[in-house]
Automatic annotation (TrEMBL):
GO-annotated cellular components: cytosol
Species this chain originates from: Leptospira perolatii
Molecular function via GO: DNA binding; DNA-binding transcription factor activity
Keywords assigned by UniProt, alphabetized: DNA-binding, Transcription, Transcription regulation
Chain ranges of the HTH crp-type domain: 154-220
Pfam assignment, any one: cNMP_binding
Name of the protein described by the UniProt record: Crp/Fnr family transcriptional regulator
Length: 233
């Protein structure tokens, strides 16, 4: 698998409202941003660490993950340039506001930290900004709810197919931006099961492979039904 950055669709990166927010209030937001560079595998924040603000990814790839009592890791989300990390705690009481999970860089990259107090001051003084930022946060919460449902009811094949579609794989060949082991953790599976699922999807003519890149030829019935449900909802 290559580590070439693939196209990320609006479904996994709800940045449209953030782009609008930044275009309208950039003069207020830009000065408070603090740029931070990270090398590969460097920690950004830890679970239950006091919340200092949210981050915007400007380069690199970052993962949000949790660890159980035995140290087993569960990847919650992979973040790409343009996405925001840890927006929900912005709306918690300051004394109770903590990061809900761990965050780490998967490759060298840069984040912009928007400090909680300064950004919250902008929101409270500008109802339009508050509305747009709330919309961004709701989209991320919706994303996590959807992933919980998928991990509970979707097969490994369907999870991989969903990931490829969300990465732009229904329009063009895309390379996986993360290693097979990381993808397995993201969808709650094992690297061996992921390899078998890719092979099965190729053999069934659902996806096509070319130089470690993939394109979705046709969707599985389960996914078509899910997309219809989302449209109707």
């Amino acid at each position: 698998m290559t580590t070439t950055l693939c196209k990320i669709s609006p479904k996994t990166a709800p940045v449209n409202d953030w782009i609008t927010l930044y275009s309208e209030f950039g003069k207020l937001i830009r000065p408070i941003g603090i740029r931070k560079k990270f090398y590969k595998d460097q920690s950004v924040f830890s679970e239950m660490e006091p919340y200092s603000g949210f981050f915007e990814v400007t380069s690199g790839i970052f993962k949000l993950y949790s660890l159980n009592t035995n140290g087993r890791e569960a990847t919650l989300k992979i973040f790409f340039p343009g996405e925001l990390i840890a927006t929900p705690p912005m709306f918690q009481d300051e004394e109770e506001s903590v990061y809900p999970a761990n965050c780490q860089s998967l490759q060298e990259g840069e984040l912009i930290l928007y400090p909680r107090d300064k950004f919250l001051s902008i929101l409270l003084q500008n109802p339009r900004a508050l509305f747009l930022f709330s919309a961004v946060t709701v989209e991320y919460l919706t994303y996590f709810r959807q992933k919980i449902v998928e991990n509970a009811f979707f097969s490994v094949r369907d999870k991989i197919l969903t990931y490829l579609i969300e990465s732009g794989g229904s329009q063009a060949y895309v390379s996986l931006p993360i290693a097979k082991q990381q993808l397995a953790s993201l969808i709650g599976s094992t690297p061996e099961s992921v390899s078998r699922a890719f092979r099965s999807l190729i053999e069934d003519g659902i996806i096509r492979e070319r130089e470690d890149s993939y394109i979705v030829i046709r969707e599985a019935p389960a996914l078509s039904a899910r997309h219809f449900y989302e449209f109707k909802r």
